Amino acid sequence: MRIAFSTGRPAHAVLPANLLAQRGEQVTIYTAAYRARFPQLAASVGLRWVPQFVPSLHFLTGVQLARPWQRADTALYDHLVAMRIGATRDRFDIFWAWASGALASGRAARRRGARFVLDRACPHVDVQQALIQTECERLGVRYQPEPPWFRARQLAEYDEADIVLVPSTYSRDSFPAALQSKTLVAPLFGRVPMEHVIHTSNMASVSASNTRSERQRPFTFGTVGGQPLRKGFLYLLQAWKQLQLPNARLLLRTDAPLDRSPVLRKLLRQLPNVEIVRYVENMSDFYRRCDAFVFPTIDDGFGMALLEAMAHGLPAIATTHCGAAELFTPGQDLLVVPAQDAEPLASAMQSLYSSDEMRERLRNNALRSLRQIEGNGTYRLYSKTLDRILSGCGPAGV
Predict the structure, then answer these.
(1) CA nearest 291: which of 206, 369, 368, 376?
(2) Fewer CB within 10 Å: N-end or C-end of the chain?
(3) Is 273:244 a contact under the CB 8 Å cutoff?
(4) How much is the CA Rg of the chain, to the nearest whole Å?
C-alpha cells in the first residue's frame, strides 16, 4: 500500500511512518524539514521537500513572525503540497496530513484516489478557541481569534477528511456527533522520548529516599508547560497561594513570558517560593528536583509531560483535559481534578504534600501501569488504531 504524509515540521510523523514501514508499506513524507529533523526515521521512508517559509526563517534566525504570517504560510505550504501532488501525478492509497495545513493537499490526494486521514492532536478548533478566549479574559490579555478564513479552512478539513485521528477521548468528545463517527483515537504513547523514560530498569531504580522524612529540603512540586493560555498556570498559582504550604516550593518549567499577563505577574510577585525554570538540557534533571508533579492543563489532547514525570517516579495530578491521563486509573495511578478550577487542584496538592503513603502508592501503581503498557509493546495502543485505518483503506482505485 502507498501512503503519503504531509507535515511542515516533524510533529509525531516518525511514529506512524515507522510503524507502516515495518509492515512493508511504501511510505513518503512531504515536508519542509530535513531528514535530520526526523530522529530515528526508518531509512526506507522517503522525503519530498516542500518549502515552508515561516518555520524555516525561525529555525535559521530565531525570528518569530506574527500569527497572521504564520497562518498564511501554513495555507501556502498546503497549496504547494497540492501542486506537487498534481504536478508529479502521484497516486496514494492513504494521504495523512496534520490539521490546519491539509485542505488543498487532502483534496488533491482524494482526486487521485487516496483516502484522507486528518491528524488533529488537539480538540475541535471551536472548542479550543472557546477555552482560550475564557483564559484570555481571566488572565487579562487580549483575545486574538483565528482569522475567519483560517477557521473556515479548519472546519472544511474536518468535513473533507475520511478519518479524523485524535490522541484521546477528550479530543474526540469535543467534536460534534456528526463527525464522531469518523473520528478515531490513537494514544501517542509510543512518542515518549525513550532516552528519558519508559525504561523498566530506570523505573525500578527510583530512589526511595524521596520521602519527606528523609530529607531537609523543601517539598517540591513541579510542572511543565509552554503556553500560559492552555497550561492552566493561573489555577496552579491560585491554588498555591491558597495552600501556603510550609517548607515547600513550586517549580514552573516554562520559556513563556508569564509577565505579559497582569494577573500572572501579580500572583508571581506574591509568591516568593515559586521558581521559573527556563531551558533545561536534560528534562530528567528537572524531574529529579521534584517530589510530585502537577499538570493543571486546560487543553492537552495528550500531554506527554505527564507520562515523562510519572515514569520518573513522581506521584502526579492531572486535569480532565489531559488526554494522557486516560491511560491510567484515577485515584489509583494518579489524581485527576476538573480543569479551570483552583479549589480541587489545591485539595489534591494538599493530599500529596501531607501523605507519604499516598505518594508512595500512586508512584508504585503508576510505574506498574507504565511497565504493563511497555510490556505489551510500546506502540501497541497506537498500532491498534493504525490497523483499523489500513483495513478501511484499500488500494487506490479499488
Answers:
(1) 206
(2) C
(3) no
(4) 22
Round to whole Å and give the CA distance between 178 and 164.
12
56 DSSP assignment: H
Residue 398 in domain: no
How does 167-199 read in b/e, with b if 16+ C-beta sit within 10 Å? Answer: bbebbbebbeeebeebbbbbbbbbbbeeebbbe
In one-letter notation, the amino acid at residue 49 is W
Sign, Cα dihedral of 290, 368, 350, 207: negative
Closest among 223, 217, 228 to 240, alpha carbons compared:
223
**Do residues 181 and 337 touch, judged by C-beta distance below 8 A?**
no
Determine if the pTM surpasses 0.85: yes
- Host domain of residue 184: 2-191+378-392
| Total residue length of the chain | 398
Positive or negative CA dihedral for 195, 41, 24, 51? positive
Report d(CA 38, CA 285) in Å as an integer.
24
Same domain, 111 and 228: no
**Residue showing cell 521559573:** 276
Residue 305 and residue 297 in contact, taking contact as beta carbons nearer than 8 Å: no
Rounded-to-integer distance, Cα 29 and Cα 4, Å: 6
pLDDT, one tens digit per residue, over 294-345 is: 999 999 999 999 999 999 999 999 999 999 999 999 999 999 999 999 999 9
How many other CB atoms are found less than 10 A from the CB of residue 285?
10
In this predicted model, what pLDDT tens digit does every residue of 286-301 receive, in sequence order?
999 999 999 999 999 9
Please tell me the predicted confidence (pLDDT) of residue 356: 96
Looking at this protein, which amino acid is placed at residue 295?
F
Distance of alpha carbon 94 from alpha carbon 348, whole angstroms: 45
- Whether residues 166 and 85 fall in one domain: yes
Examine residue 305 and state whether it is found in any structural domain, yes or no. yes
Beta strands in the chain (DSSP E): 2-7, 26-31, 46-49, 94-98, 115-119, 163-166, 183-185, 219-224, 248-253, 274-277, 292-295, 316-319, 335-337
Domain count of the fold of the chain: 2
